[in-house]
Every structure is written in C-alpha cells, then in structure tokens.
Amino acid sequence: MIRHLAKKTIFSVQPYVPGKPIDEVKRELGLRSVIKLASNENPYGPSPKALQALRRAAKDVNRYPDGGCFYLRQALAKRLKVSPEQIVFGNGSDEVIVLAVRVFVNPGDEVIIADPSFLIYGIASRIAGANVKAIPLKDFSYDLEGMKEAVTDKTRIIFLGNPDNPSGKYLTQKQLEDFLSGLREDILVFIDEAYYEYVRAKDYVDSLGLLKKHKNIIVTRTFSKMYGLAGLRIGYGVAGEEIIDCLNRIREPFNVNSLAQAAALACLADQAYYRTLARRIERQREVLYRGIRKLGLKYVESCTNFVLIDMRQDASGIAKALLGDGVIVRDMSAWGLKHFIRVTIGTEAENKRFLSALREVL
Ligand SMILES: *Cc1c(COP(=O)(O)O)cnc(C)c1O
User: Which of 36, 134, 202, 356 could pair covalently with 328 via S-S, beta carbons 3.0-4.6 A apart?
Assistant: First the structure.
C-alpha cells in the first residue's frame, strides 16, 4: 500500500480521460469515416515545408535534441523582437503553465482563474496545493473587476486566456491595461495566447509590448493550434529574463524534441501558408455561424477556430448522437456548461457534414 504516501493534493483533481483514437471509434461504431472537431486542431495540417523539415530531421533521432532550441530560439526572438533569453520553450505551452505554477505557487497560496476557462490552469494549481479562486464569466467574457477584487496577500498567479478556451472571447488592450494598473507587481499575470494567430481584432492586446513596462507578465503561445503541430508538442513562453531564468531552472533539459524544433522552425518561415489558412478558417467560421442560425440555435461569437453552441437541452446527449454519426465534438459538461457543445472549425467538407449531422440529430 503506497497510495497513502502520495501528496494529498493530487487527489483534488480528476485524472484526464483521453478520447479514443479515431480508428477505435470507427471500429466500435462500424463507421467508415469519422471527423474530429473536438480539440481545436488545424484541420489542414502544417505547412508542407514543415513536413519536409520533419523528414530531414527524422534521420537524426538517435541523437538527443538541442536542449537550448538554438535555431528556433534565434528565429523566434527575431520575429517577436525580444531577446533570445526572454523565451522558454515547452513540451506544448501546457508545460509552460505547469512550470510557472511549480515555480511560483506554494501550498496555501492563491491562484485566480476565470470560470469556465482552460482546465489546466486550475488542475496544475490545485496539484501545487493552491486555493483556486474561480471567478465566473459574465456573458462569456472575463469579469476583470471581479478577478481584481479577488486578489489577496496570498495571490501568486492570475491566469488570463486571451482569447480563452472555451469562450472564444478576447480581452482588449484597454481592458488589460486597466487591469494591470494598480495590480501588485509580485503577482504573475499569465497571459495564454494559444489562439493568438487567429485574432484579427484591431483592439486586441499587444502583450509583448506590455512586457516592456510590466516585469510580472508571461505570455505563452503554441505551435499546436494555427501552426498545426499539436502532435509534436511544442509551445513557448515570453517574459522578462528574470522569470524565464526561474522557469529554466526546473525545466527538463530535453523537454522539446528534435522533430518539434525542426518543424516549428519551418512553420515560422512559411507565414504565407498560414495567412491563407487563417482566411479559410475565418470564412468557414461564417459558414458555421450561418448554419447554426438556420437551425434556430445560438452561438457565442468567437475570434478563434472553435465555437460554443447553445443546444438549449442536455448537450451530452447531442454529443453522443453526433458521435454515432461519426462527428466528434466536445460536450461542455465538464466545464459546467451543460447545454453547450464546442465545435472546432474544420475543412469546408467537415463543417458541412457537422451541420447536416446536427440537423438530423435535432
Ligand atoms: C490548446 C490550448 C493550450 C495548450 O496547447 P499546447 O498544445 O500545450 O501548446 C493552451 N491554452 C489554451 C487556452 C488552449 O486551448
């Protein structure tokens, strides 16, 4: 019996339940084709240049990866106009979230998040022994006033998903500046920009600009969403060198594999591909909106590649029925949104199929 020796805090979280592999779903349901619109992946795949880079890098997988991500770091620093020492790479940006919590949160400290928000913020914080204060969204947007009022002497981190998942909503420059003004500077403001590349709004936050003035901010982005490398696991954080130095101390030396580094570098160099892709997704988002309206349903306006849809009835049943038709969407019960599903914007054909399956199910 060893379970009683495990840290108590690990029992405060539910283990992550992975979805079944698509091939397994096909086999079980006897379906020929299944489409996955559940994890906000890019349905078109990464730049062809990234695939070439992967083939080239594959022959060196007998070697350990470059623990410093040298070439990627140089390219990214240049692109973002920050110093190479201001970047930390992670095995997905999820890892950067976990590193930040491990560095700054002691048992009994407080972490402030929105509710609902990206699940990892709360999970990582609870495991570290934090008291998590979850401030309800107001009409799917952050209640920044409420979050600021929740700050106490014990507050260590405030997580801001911008845009957030599952809401798909973003914070403006003005909102964030107001939030930061008067906020204690020994609280880490964690700005998660996993969907940064999708946002077109003019008043969206220039978070890297804010880094110059505020030493207590970290901004994370990822190659998993727009860049189409979710399966390789690579993301990064940008912050002042002080914060990055702290994270690097507990980072595993080879946390980012060599294939991920090679592919990410090639993605960065092919911005033309991603500009086209962003426009496609944007057009498809409009198609999806129209289809949802036609069904008499409401959605939450999103600036990302996913949309929350209000089914006005228990959404678990709908998600299950859609699965029976070979369409995997996210049932939002785990987020406390019992009537909602979250759908990732797929290719034109996938969205068509989703809409017609939904029409049938209803
Ligand atoms: C997908 C996602 C991430 C994490 O992505 P990684 O694959 O770990 O880089 C982080 N934040 C939000 C809000 C996300 O939706």
Answer: 36
Instruction: Identify the domain containing residue 67 by its residue range.
Output: 48-268
Atom nearest to 97 CA in ligand 1:
10
For the chain, how far is it from start to end, CA to CA, in angstroms? 50
Tell me the pLDDT tens digit for each residue of 294-319: 999 999 999 999 999 999 999 999 99
Q: Which residues of 34-45 are buried (b: 16+ CB within 10 A; e: fewer)?
A: bbbbbebbbbee
Among 235, 268, 301, the domain boundary falls at 268
Q: Atom 15 of ligand 1 has which residue's CA nearest to it?
A: 165
Q: Which of 40, 88, 94 most suits a substitution to test ligand 1, by most atoms within 8 Å of the C-beta?
A: 94
- Do 87 and 227 belong together in one domain? yes
The CB of 93 under 6 Å from ligand 1? The reply is yes
Distance 39 CA to ligand 1 centre (A): 10
Measured CA to CA, the distance from residue 200 to residue 223 in angstroms comes to 18
User: Same domain, yes or no, for 262 and 282?
Assistant: no
